[in-house]
Amino acid sequence: MTHIACLTFDFDVWSGFAARDMQTPTPISRGEFGLVAARRILSLLKSRGVRSTWYVPGVIIDTHEADVGRVVEAGHEISHHGYSHLVPASMPPEHEEAEMVQAIEAIRRVSGRAPRGYRSPSWDLSPVTIDLLLKYGFDYDSSMMGDDFTPYFARRGDVVTVDAPFRYGTPTRLLEMPISWSLDDHPYFEFFRIGQAVMPGLANADMVLENFLGDFEYMRRHSDWGVLTYTFHPYVIGRGHRMLMLEKLIDRLGEMGATFMAMEDAADTFLSSRAAA
Fold this sequence. Notes:
InterPro entries: Glyco_hydro/deAcase_b/a-brl, NODB_dom, PgdA-like
CATH class: Alpha Beta
Order of helices and strands: EHHEHHEHEHEEEHEEHEHHEH
Pfam families: Polysacc_deac_1 (PF01522)
Protein name: Chitooligosaccharide deacetylase
CATH topology: TIM Barrel
Radius of gyration: 18 Å
Largest sheet: 5 strands, parallel
Number of strands: 11
CATH architecture: Alpha-Beta Barrel
CATH superfamily: Glycoside hydrolase/deacetylase
Domain NodB homology: 25-261
Oligomer: single chain
Strand content: 15-25%
Helix content: 40-55%
Distance between the termini: 14 Å
Family: Belongs to the polysaccharide deacetylase family.
Shape: globular
């Protein structure tokens, strides 16, 4: 029995705020706290011997290369998270491809190799994203929610209309490592006021911890093999009381028998077990 926990960090810093036209000093500084928090997170991961995956926009590498370099030096996987934090579904195809190439080169420069994995900013793929990921040699994506702890192969060519049955496209070789908003720190913890909309956030961290542990316990009870992906943002999880929650999460998962892996290692493990079956 193998139950894998992937700790992943979207190292957006200020790029997500800038992409949402929140470019005044306070929201930018809110994102910059992620640079402080990253050092805390790296220290915690080192103390627990956990290798993780960091999804980093290319613009953050180009602006904060030394900070991203510390993640590389600590042995963590660096994966693709766009160049800017603009949503691919909002871009013309040629813009999306140009950003994909630009970010690949930034990751290659800071880590010494091309990224194997991709996570879409805001988890919203365009109609051409899967084709681009295949074209540029990616092994896995982590942007979709069609399962919870079982990887599957991403499709291309789905046809979705309001008034006709869904038409399935063709599975590809691109492995999907599924995610969920319920295992993401951002909607639980971040307060936003955008226009007339308010996202309250600011949840009690120990109550969120119960949710995070509960999904792992369900996987453990109902499957002999599985991989559960947790998504964190350094500027979110790096606040003091949430760092205590992250520490508790790692320790409790370890007590429950979790095997911690970077996403690329979990993907390889899945593919190897499938080939051996």
